[in-house]
Amino acid sequence: MGFKCGIVGLPNVGKSTLFNALTQTANAQAANYPFCTIEPNVGDVAVPEDRLDKIAAIAGSAQKIPARMNFVDIAGLVRGASQGEGLGNQFLANIRETDAVLYVLRCFDDDDVTHVEGKIDPMADFETVETELMLADLESLEKRKSGLEKKLKQKDADALQTMRLIETAIGLLQDGKPARLADIDEDDQKAWKMLQLLTAKKVLYVANVDEDSAASGNDYSQKVLDHAASEGAEAVVISARIESEIAILEKAEERTEYLDAIGLEEPGLNRLIQAGYALLGLRTYFTAGPKEARAWTFREGWTAPKCAGVIHGDFEKGFIRAETTAYDDYIEHNGEQGAKEAGKVRQEGKDYLVKDGDIMLFKFNV
Prior knowledge:
- The two termini are 22 Å apart.
- Helix 1 (15-23) packs parallel to helix 9 (240-247) and helix 4 (122-147) runs antiparallel to helix 6.
- The chain has a 6-stranded mixed beta sheet with strand order 2-4-1-5-6-7, with helices on both faces.
- Helices cover 42% and strands 20% of the residues.
- The chain has 366 residues and is an alpha/beta fold.
- The longest helix has 26 residues, at 122-147.
- It is built from 15 helices and 12 strands.
């Protein structure tokens, strides 16, 4: 399962520095000029998961395999991107291919790093980028409207549904509001997603602060947090520069000492990755044994057979049952055998909705 979060923002706000820290590579060129990222860079990132470490220790697993997700470093947008300014059309297409958007907003002063707008104002930066995405959505919707004319005259049901949703989106966008604020019925969700609106994507706000503000934030980042709260969205305060320095430290004790010195309990990247994972409605179940302990990604609301299919399609097709242990029970009773003796291992069938943290053993027949 591939899940992509697009890292979006104006040039020189710290997107590529953040991406490099996330992937612990130098695949994205971080430089002090606009458009230093010409092609979108995709990084495959492990999802931090303390539970996997504990499960592996109890199971005596020789290997630990975490869940993973993708982050895409998308080159900086500028005012007029929706009309092709800068490298606008290419970058808007890159955003369209992602599942969620991480708005990286500059919340630090630094005379050595040029700001494309000439001033530090994270919310103005956000409005510039959001406006370009809204304009691009409006243009896309107008094109779709003209393409529906013939089917609308024939009273085609799908076309009527699509036009109704288009009008809903246009109404919001013309009011200066993103499409993600629309209240869409469950029956309309599939057609809504097919509109592929940039501003309908889920959003995580990332306030990129200076090193001294990494632990407590600053006045700039507070504005970002306030805006996110007003929208019911999540926001993470992080110093991309500090995270890039932590990422190159090879030993765990070195990273711990560094974090202690700056007053952080864990890397900000851990919070960022976990927030991105949750943003997409993703959850984790585990398999464990002597060979490996592994975290598997599923979407909330999935049944046991569908989750089994994440491992292999045959597991879903030939699903019989799933031996299931809740994470807390697995830990409390020191693993599968102890949980069985305590009567905590359940035999779940095809209708079971898998819960986050379940340790599972699938029985199947093909």
